[in-house]
Input
Amino acid sequence: MKKWLLNWRLFSLFSVIALLLAGCGKPFLSTLQPAGEVADMQYSLMLLSTAIMVLVIIVVTIIFVYVVIRFRQRKGEEKKIPKQVEGSHKLEIIWTVIPILLLIILAVPTVSATFKLADVKPMNKEKRDKNIVVVNVRANLYWWEFEYPDYGIITSQDLVVPTNERVYFNLKASDVKHSFWIPAVGGKMDTNVENKNQFWLEFDQKATDEAGGIFYGKCAELCGPSHALMDFKVKPLPREEFDQWVEKMKNAKPVVTDSVAKEGEAIFNKSCIGCHAVSPVDNRPEQARTAPNLANFGDRTRIAGVLEHNEENLKKWLKDPDSVKPGNKMTGTYGNLTDEQINALTKYLMSLKVE
Amino acid sequence: MSTLARKKGVGAVIWDYLTTVDHKKIAILYLIAGGFFFLIGGLEALFIRIQLAKPNNDFLVGGLYNQVLTMHGTTMIFLAAMPLVFAMMNAVVPIQIGARDVAFPFLNALGFWLFFFGGVFLNLSWFLGGAPDAGWTSYASLSLESPGHGIDFYVLGLQISGFGTLMGGINFLVTIINMRAPGMTYMRMPMFTWATFVTSALILFAFPPLTVGLIFMMMDRLFGGNFYNPAGGGNTIIWEHLFWIFGHPEVYILVLPAFGIFSEIFATFSKKRLFGYSSMVFATVLIGFLGFMVWAHHMFTVGMGPIANAIFAVATMAIAVPTGIKIFNWLFTMWGGNIRFTTPMLYAVAFIPSFVMGGVTGVMNAAAAADYQYHDSYFVVAHFHYVIVGGVVFALLAGAHYWWPKMFGKMLNETLGKITFWLFFIGFHLTFFIQHFLGLMGMPRRVFTYLPGQGLETGNLISTVGAFFMAAATIVLLVNVVITTAKGQKAEADAWGDGRTLEWAVASPPPEYNFAQTPLVRGLDALWIEKMEGKKGLTPAEPLGDIHMPNPSILPFIISLGLFIAAFGFMYHNEYSWGLFVGIGGLLITLGSMFLRSVIDDHGFHIHKEEVLEAEKGVKA
Output
């Protein structure tokens, strides 16, 4: 009997571990494969708390299984009346004090990590170190804008950051509340409508390589019909490459050579330019920037944040945006385009490259 | 005039229930209405799981999915769990303390009808332009942006049913303080009564913040207010605070009665008194108290700063201690007992590991820095379903099986009951266990779909399969109810044979007046004490006499109906000119009925001694 119990416990322990190992998710998305200082800190806190909690579960399970098997009513004992026990002070003290100790073990690193993660002093110094990268994140109904105030450039949907250093973020929303989350790199922070939140993340180069150079970002606060599709991507680059990218962005201008693309440009300048900018240097106030900046659209990884990046999907998106992202703000703002116009526009947009 | 033991037509029965102020009949009303909404909420849950069964599914897309998820949460919390808890409290608590009814029977009926009309109002949104779609939390920026009237249905419906809940809470507080039988001291009250007492206190303090929040939102949406509009100097975070100052205690409002139900069941079917009764009472009060100190752990990612986050993290962890005390006391109630595995006991036993899972993930969530990862992910979805289904729903199912004979006079079929249990238990763990991992693997909550290739397919499919097990369990339960109603085995007063508390001393179902003579309570588990001394019944504390009863009244129904009509009027007053008139007309109906209630003298009636003797003889024979 006892042996059977022991085997059963070992078996379940192994199956849980197996599940954990097999179910760690994808390296570009999973919090269980941390890819930076913040995620690491959070992951170790998860492990610590899980360990303590598994300990608690094991103790409860042992008593539970023993009680349920040992004290079940047996045949012929229906009339037996057990001793009526009032309680036990000793036991009460034991199961009050031990949990308190366990919680203290968890509380100390929790408090310490909470303060470390909130340390945004370097970005708020009077004279900020120019090497520190600060990104202003602005969340909008189903798309993300990333502004680099120190470099005067703006991009959207694909966040580009340097690896192996702390990157600081200002977070806000321009319509309803969203939440900025890159699961593999660190926990989320809400983008509120009335104030600016700040936090930092660090992107590990090695983990980036393992994840294929790109991390997935998500909106983590219900924000409307297409909340599920409000994805963005993160491209961490080594610092040198990041600096080169910034330089290219600063000087980027649409260069259109193809004749079809030229047609597209004409259509764009008539129907789209009111909302979408095609230069990373966009001096309009943020209230005027009501749609994603498309300066490096050709370099992006996804159409509308979710579809694979190819011409076919771009046409689909331009033809009927609502079929891709229900409730998006682009639907119905540019009239009906003919297939030819959409072809031209597609050519033009795909030619918008910085790299 | 007495209505005892008389056959009545359908119309008369309906009129009887529309006008009743009897806590036992109100319990049945709560059970039926709550059960009905539970089925609706369950269907909505199934739709959610069907949509998420595979990536890029198109069963329920975008805005419609948001409506379903919002209504699932709102319905389950406000219109299913709350009324079902009230059903148990109404059916049992007055009898457990040896009272003939609650302190304010009229108010009790009013509470029910307010809840009912609020719930009906909220669900009518499906047919009138769309349901609310901002989640059950209805965060202000999104809910203010939401087009149509969905959110207005949410605001007004919850406001009306919230009044009902608040009245119910006050009623039980007064009942438990004032109406206990002689000898029923506080420390002799059954654990379920204690839980009801603390829960009622929580309702008293938790619902007003919700009411305030809802009024602000109503002003913003319908009357041009700016409480939550940043452009007008408002602030959306205020809603989050108000909502969670209510919302977190709400969890304990639901789960403390669940603890109470399980405490009764553990003691009964282990044939032992509750282990560590006084520390159980202490733990219940402490959980209730701490429940108000931790609301901001729902807002760790809002940007409150590390000091607030750290304080709320540690406060939240502290709740684990009294909860742990309870778990171990239940285990040691069973220790050395003679455990009978009836259907209610199966739920109680299964509750321990299930709820411990929900509890430990709660502590994990409390670790603020790590919560930045869990927050608004499926990890949290798994956590609170473990707490609310593994705790509250298990308890409601257990309580329904346990007290069914007391409420209806017939035993539910045990075989079907056990089939229900196993299907539900398996389905529950299948659905929700895997969701912990989905969350950790990066799946945010409240998403209507996910893309292939993100490692989320298998987990979601397993979860959907589990949901169908729970649906099957519910169908078996319904079949059981129908069969039992048609030809169930009649229940005795002490239906399970091991009853310990006063409700098992009166007939099943109890007579209108509960106790022919108010009993004298001589200790904890009053009935058990008498039984152990070889006595058949309770020791009476008064001679047999005429029993004073309250008159039935249709006014609670009409007062609630007035508010229901008024809500429609005010909701449409911006578009239609009739709106304002209908709104004011509805309020006049309500105020007029309240006026009538104040001026009409109602002295109740007496059930005469001879009639009581007659009725009691019928039971004994």
